[in-house]
Amino acid sequence: MLLSSPPPSHGAGTRCPAGRRVRRDLVHLLTVRQIYPASGPEVTAGEAGGRREAADLLAGLYAYPPGISPDRPWVRANMIASADGAADLNGLSGGLGGPADRLLLQVQRCLADVILVGAGTARAEKYRPARPSPALAALRLGRAPTPPIAVLSASLDLDPDAPLLAQAPPDARTIVLTTEAAPARRRAAVARHAQVIVAGTDRVTASQAVCALAGLGHARILTEGGPGLLAQIAAAGQLDELCLTISPVLAGGQSRRILAGGPAGDLAPGLPQAMRLACVLADGAYLFCRYVRPAT
Ligand SMILES: NC(=O)c1ccc[n+]([C@@H]2O[C@H](COP(=O)([O-])OP(=O)(O)OC[C@H]3O[C@@H](n4cnc5c(N)ncnc54)[C@H](OP(=O)(O)O)[C@@H]3O)[C@@H](O)[C@H]2O)c1
User: Looking at the domain assignment, is residue 61 inside a domain?
Assistant: First the structure.
């Protein structure tokens, strides 16, 4: 498979999912090939309409499995790591990404019902509401133009007037999952704009978070991390799928891996967990690996 993605429009760079930046004034030609399982037929998308064509192909490859419903939600993670396993460069994931990774992330956002992030990621990456993409509008037919962001926070140390909360559209209000123990004043402030769900007592377990989102009708849950949240989701046996971009960069340093935290010097209960490699795409030196949890 060969995909060409065309001309991003003009103007300044724009903030992308997980803080990765798109230079809209550059013309990116993507050449994404499926390399596992065996390569499929070669498909070339021309420049005119090519972005949509590339997105359609990615949407097909990353379609959620059938049978998903709020009773049977599916949790997909999208993460990026350097070739030596770092989940960030100097505290941000932006330096790891590339054009195809950004397009894939946008497609995955469009396919999802909700985007779940830990408050650490929302703060570090200055998360904003998802932006509608005209080229990908067909993926949202019958749903709001963008999925809401759901932020998990015990402290509610979130700026209630920041764009993430205050500028979300009415049909995709930001959701804040928190605890009974969260400070009442912060809860009231956050609730001015966001939908606040108290989902746990002192902390919200991964199962409680998934359950709360499914209770709102969100069956396709895309989590964008961070590593602390993802480790809890995986340890709780809630991670159905991991979409991992491997960036052709060596990071070194003290960066964490895409799952991090848990008991010091010990493996979290529920981990390690075997995953099945479902698909690998390549764009130049970037690899896009899709792992799914083996059927039980
Ligand atoms: N490589 C990638 O793909 C990728 C993706 C995302 C993020 N990142 C990077 O990862 C870093 C951020 O990740 P992180 O692991 O530090 O933070 P995180 O997992 O995004 O968020 C941690 C925060 O989430 C809340 N939280 C976590 N578990 C909770 C629970 N059980 N109950 C209630 N609240 C809970 C807490 O918020 P409160 O403190 O508000 O209580 C906690 O401080 C950044 O450097 C970012 O750039 C990388």
Answer: no
Q: Which of 153, 204, 255 most suits a substitution to test ligand 1, by most atoms within 8 Å of the C-beta?
A: 153
Q: Which residue has the higher pLDDT, 169 or 8?
A: 169
pLDDT band at 107 (very low <50, low <70, confident <90, very high): very high
Residue of 225, 246, 234, 240 whose CA lies nearest to 272: 234
Residues of the domain holding 139: 66-292
Instruction: Kindly give the distance from the C-alpha atom of residue 170 to the centroid of ligand 1, in angstroms, as a whole number.
Output: 25
Measured by CA distance, the residue closest to atom 17 of ligand 1 is 120
With respect to residue 59, please indicate whether it lies within any of the assigned structural domains: no
Domain count of the chain? 1
In whole angstroms, what is the distance from residue 199 CA to residue 180 CA?
8
On whether residue 250 sits in a domain, the answer given is yes
Ligand 1: residue whose CA is nearest its atom 35:
153
Return the best residue to mutate from 121, 127, 187, 201 for the ligand 1 pocket (most ligand atoms within 8 A of CB).
Answer: 121
Q: Nearest-CA neighbor of 191 among 232, 240, 151? A: 151
Region of poorest pLDDT, from 171-175, 176-180, 211-215, 283-287: 283-287
Task: Give me ligand 1 centre to Cα 121, in Å.
Answer: 5
Q: Give 6-53 pLDDT, tens digit per residue.
A: 322 222 233 334 344 433 333 455 678 888 997 654 444 444 456 677
- CATH code, domain carrying 173: 3.40.430.10
Whether residue 2 is contained in a domain is answered as no
- Residue 237 pLDDT greater than 70, yes or no: yes
Closest ligand 1 atom to the C-alpha of 227? 15
Please name the residues in contact with 203: beta carbons below 8 A apart, sequence gap of 6 or more. Answer: 154, 179
Please state whether the predicted TM-score (pTM) of the whole model is above 0.85: yes
Residue 200 has, within 13 A of its CA and on its CB side, a CA count of 17
